[in-house]
Specification:
The chain is about 35% helix and about 15% strand. Helix 1 (about 10-20) runs antiparallel to helix 2 and helix 1 (about 10-20) packs across helix 3. Strands 3-5-4 form a 3-stranded antiparallel beta sheet, with helices on one face. Strands 1-2 form a two-stranded antiparallel ribbon. A hairpin with a 2-residue loop joins strand 1 (about 45) and strand 2. With about 180 residues, the chain is an alpha+beta fold. The protein has helices spanning about 10-20, 60-70, 95-110, 125-135, 135-140; strands at about 45, 50-55, 115-120, 155-160, 175-180.
């Protein structure tokens, strides 16, 4: 028996598009994994915190995009960005896992982002996320949101130490790192 997924839930599509719109104006990072010692020539950014997606959009542009998303969704507009951490909040059972997994695919397709970290608070949720990655793989392949690089989508589980994750309120976390 194969599970069927409904990819046309308006509230899920709105959440996905809201996240994608935060980075409007970000140039497409091309290539599977580019590396350059010259700043700005790579799809990945090497910083003191590790390796991440190279964001070339200025913070002021991201703030304008965030304000546009907030206005469109009837939310109070932010006056400044405290950090580049964003969240999608939904009620239980509304498909958050599918939303953030599809958002990963959309961010890869639209901007070429290649590295994503999913932080979960417990072993039970980690196992649920891993199961979702397995059962939704074919669904995302069929959506036409999957670029060639995400067709080779890999994930691994890493135990994060409490010190590195200290800004999260609830102890040691499991990190699922998705990369291609």
């Amino acid at each position: 028996m194969k599970l069927q997924f409904d990819s046309h839930q308006d509230f899920q599509i709105q959440a996905i598009q809201s996240v994608v719109d935060i980075f409007e104006g970000q140039p497409l990072n091309t290539g599977d994994c580019e590396f350059s010692l010259q700043q700005g020539d790579s799809s990945l950014a090497f910083t003191e915190n590790g390796v991440g997606n190279a964001i070339r959009l200025a913070e002021q542009g991201i703030l304008r995009n965030v304000q546009g998303v907030q206005m469109r969704n009837g939310m109070e507009e932010s006056n400044e960005l405290m950090e580049l951490n964003f969240s999608v909040e939904m009620e239980t059972g509304r498909g958050k896992t599918c939303v953030y997994l599809r958002t990963i695919h959309e961010l890869n397709r639209t901007y070429g982002f290649k590295m994503f970290i999913i932080v979960v608070p417990s072993i039970a949720i980690r196992e649920g996320v891993l199961k979702n990655l397995q059962i939704t793989h074919d669904h995302f392949q069929d959506l036409n949101t999957c670029t060639t690089s995400l067709r080779r989508f890999n994930w691994r589980v890493t135990w994060a130490c409490q010190r590195a994750m200290s800004r999260f309120a609830f102890g040691t976390k499991t990190v699922i790192t998705a990369e291609n």
